[in-house]
Design goal:
The protein is mainly alpha-helical. It is built from 6 helices and 3 strands, in the order αβααβαβαα. The protein has helices spanning 2-8, 24-28, 33-49, 76-97, 105-109, 127-142, and strands spanning 18-20, 58-61, 100-102. A 3-stranded parallel β-sheet has the order 1-2-3, sandwiched between helices. β2 (58-61), α4 (76-97) and β3 form a beta-alpha-beta unit. α3 (33-49) packs parallel to α4. The N and C termini lie far apart (33 Å).
């Protein structure tokens, strides 16, 4: 995770907005929550460092729950519990760093009955799901932009 960020941001660049949505691969790959927390702490530091307005210009978006997809249905209960555990760490870390945390996970869970929220691969979010996420957070995120 950190290695990929280093290769993308190898010089100091400042951004008006920096978003953090990370963790589903950690959960899927069976990585520990302590490893996630350690890496997440570094990601928050880097995000804040690359924001023109510090923590005010950074926001975090919760991990979507893929347990409701055909891909995750065989292990749905375990996946959902683990996603919640990773999101608890994510929310706590965002609070610790003074970064807004937006919980879009409940919207992702609607895909259990609303399959139009899934892309054609039946795993990833569809444009419709992204639209719902954006509608939930856009007004608050827009306030973070410089005037």
């Amino acid at each position: 995770m950190i290695r990929n960020i280093e290769s993308e941001i190898n010089v100091q660049r400042d951004f008006d907005l920096v978003s953090i949505l990370i963790g589903v691969n950690n959960q899927y790959q069976g990585r520990t929550t302590s490893e996630y927390e350690t890496e997440l702490r570094e990601i928050f530091r880097k995000a804040i460092n690359h924001s023109r307005t510090g923590e005010r210009g950074v926001f975090a978006v919760s991990i979507p729950d893929y347990s409701v997809t055909p891909f995750g249905e065989d292990n749905a209960e375990v996946i959902a519990v683990e996603i919640d555990r990773f999101n608890e760490i994510f929310r706590r870390m965002a609070n610790e760093f003074g970064v807004e945390f937006y919980n879009i996970t409940p919207i992702s869970r609607e895909a259990i009955t609303e399959r139009n929220l899934l892309a054609a691969d039946s795993l990833h979010p569809s444009g419709e799901m992204y639209r719902l996420w954006v509608e939930q957070i856009v007004d608050e995120v827009a306030q973070k932009l410089p005037q």
